[in-house]
Design goal:
single chain; 499 residues; mainly alpha; Fumarase C, Chain B, domain 1; Fumarase C, Chain A, domain 2; 2 domains; 3-stranded antiparallel beta sheet; two-stranded parallel sheet; lyase
Length: 499
């Protein structure tokens, strides 16, 4: 871990900074300005209690119990009861990477200073993060309104010495979690339990994960599409810059630029320049339009999630001496972004599967059916394509928007919810499927190019072929391909050769 610190001020965190910190972790701390703002909000909470003003979440119950007034001597007990009663998360624990991201996002949101929580509580959270003592946070149990209450309650449990955490592969429990960083359990004060539980950090964590993965897979889609163009002896004309300039779609222009970067001087292209085929199937010809729409979707999602990074999503919020109850905990903006990303990812997989279909069914008459060595005796890529088709179909179901669903909770008080966590969780599975679909296409397309030897593809695609062959061997007769698909899908988590 680098000695240089990442300083959280609730204002300046960016997605690029987040990605850089995740790639090369460094200690995280609060800015002095954040500490001062946080203390100002804590003082405002104290005045509410001293003056016996009624304020939601400070001296009232929660949700449908908001009308219940809490006596001064039970205000602290209220916070502990809140954390304990809301720890109802179920399912698998978040991965370590996602847990770290969630912890960072939670700390940065509290650093804005509108939440009525002491700096020392957040510093305890950061002490766990910096030592890689990671609270075990279940994936399921949040509907994405009133915040991600149940999952975040498990984070809060770890801070008060009643939860579980993972450290160096060992599960720590209770006070041992904080003992691992030489800290005593946090003693909650008024409003602090609610500040920890209220917020959309799980929803945001999952949406950001989908964005990061799809940005990488978009670049892989451009590369795979270019390799399929070569394998299928496709035309370069649909990628001409003039075609896309007059459509004026920024993502489409960028997608065409990406394809042209791979499709330069090619012996394969020269060999079929005068062929009789007039037009290619849409899966080739319309790649700039489809992948361009995906690019615009990714850019929109990035813009929205940049805002969310430094946003405050708990309730009530403290502004000087005024405490306002609102609805920033509603994760609808994130739910819609996750759903939009899922649609984009499903479309990348759908058009990739169509290109693989073209590769195995003889669209290029120079290629044998299913890319076999000996048709009939061998099946070649027949069932690899079936796998891609199965995953593409599954993704169509996963792309059904979660945000159009709502289910009333809390005795009707929380009567419209976002379902943002589910939108993010299914997006994660969709990305796994997409990586495998692209892996199948890359394997089939590389086989298609190699079958046209001694003709060579572009220098750029030759580098891509070398990268593929560093991961999976060339196809020489039937063999099981499951391991190759998984290996190449995993390799797509890292950048492809630069062009």
């Amino acid at each position: 871990m680098s000695d240089e610190k990442l300083i959280l001020d609730g204002e300046s965190l960016s997605l690029n900074t987040l990605a850089g910190w995740e790639a090369q972790p460094r200690p995280v701390t609060l800015s002095e300005g954040a500490k001062k703002r946080m203390q100002t909000s804590v003082d405002a909470v104290a005045r509410v209690i001293d003056e016996e003003r009624v304020s939601y979440g400070i001296n009232t119950g929660f949700g449908a119990l908001a009308r219940e007034r809490i006596s001064r001597d039970k205000v602290v007990q209220l916070q502990y009861n809140l954390v304990r009663s809301h720890a109802c998360g179920v399912g698998d624990a978040l991965s370590p990477a996602l847990t770290r991201r969630l912890m960072l996002l939670k700390a940065n949101a509290l650093a804005v200073g509108c939440s009525g929580i002491r700096a020392e509580v957040v510093e305890t959270l950061l002490a766990l993060l910096n030592a890689d003592v990671l609270p075990m946070i279940p994936e399921q149990g949040s509907v994405g309104a009133s915040g991600d209450l149940a999952p975040l309650a498990h984070l809060a449990l770890a801070l008060i010495g009643e939860g579980e955490a993972l450290h160096d592969g060992e599960v720590l429990e209770g006070r041992d979690v904080l003992a691992a960083v030489d800290r005593e359990p946090v003693v909650l004060q008024a409003k602090e339990g609610l500040a920890l539980l209220n917020g959309t950090q799980l929803s945001a964590t999952l949406a950001i994960d989908g964005l990061f993965r799809l940005e990488q897979l978009w670049r892989a889609s451009i590369a795979a599409g270019a390799l399929s163009v070569e394998a299928l002896a496709g035309s370069y004309s649909p990628f001409d810059a003039r075609v896309h300039q007059v459509r004026r779609m920024p993502g489409q222009i960028r997608a065409a630029e990406g394809l042209r970067a791979w499709l330069t001087e090619s012996e394969i292209r020269e060999n079929h320049r005068d062929c009789t085929r007039v037009q290619d199937p849409y899966a080739l010809r319309c790649m700039p339009q489809v992948l361009g729409a995906v690019r615009d979707t990714l850019d929109h999602a990035r813009n929205m999630l940049e805002h969310e990074l430094n946003g405050v999503s708990d309730n009530p919020l403290i502004f000087d001496d005024e405490i306002i109850s609102g609805g920033n905990f509603h994760a609808e903006p994130i739910a819609m972004i996750s759903d939009f990303l899922a649609i984009a990812g499903a479309e990348m997989g759908s058009i990739s599967e169509r290109r693989t279909d073209c590769l195995v069914r003889g669209v290029n008459p120079a290629l044998p059916l299913f890319l076999t060595e000996e048709a009939g005796v061998e099946s070649g890529f027949m069932i690899a394509h079936v796998t891609a088709a199965a995953l593409a179909s599954e993704n169509k179901t996963l792309a059904h928007p979660a945000s159009v669903d709502s289910i009333s909770t809390s005795a009707g008080q929380e009567d419209h919810v976002s379902m943002a966590p589910w939108a993010g969780l299914k997006l994660h599975r969709l990305c796994d499927n997409l990586a495998r679909i692209l892996a199948v296409e890359l394997m089939a397309a590389s086989r298609g190019v190699e079958l046209q030897a001694p003709l060579k593809t572009t220098a750029e695609l030759q580098q891509l072929l070398s990268w593929i062959r560093d991961t999976v061997p060339a196809h020489k007769g039937d063999r099981r391909l499951d391991g190759d698909i998984e290996a190449l899908a995993e390799a797509l988590r890292e950048p492809l050769p630069a062009v």
